[in-house]
Please model this.
Amino acid sequence: MNGRNDYERQLRIVEEQNRRTMISGLTNFVGVILGAAAILILTALLISLLHWLKEDLNDSFTFLKTYIH
Model:
């Protein structure tokens, strides 16, 4: 009877380890997805900022050229 209890205890330990491994893998996956989404959002913001800067510089130089002449 003691051998069966040891087997069941070991089985529960292995099942718990498998559950923790699965949860760890899922959290890693979610972290990678969120990280990729953050990179895409930040890249879009940077592109938007650079586009705005280009337009603002063009407007500023146009204003300076008309003001100087």
User: Anything to note?
Assistant: The chain is about 95% helix and 0% strand. The first helix runs from residue 2 to 68. The helical segments are 2-68. The CA atoms of residues 42 and 56 lie 21 Å apart.
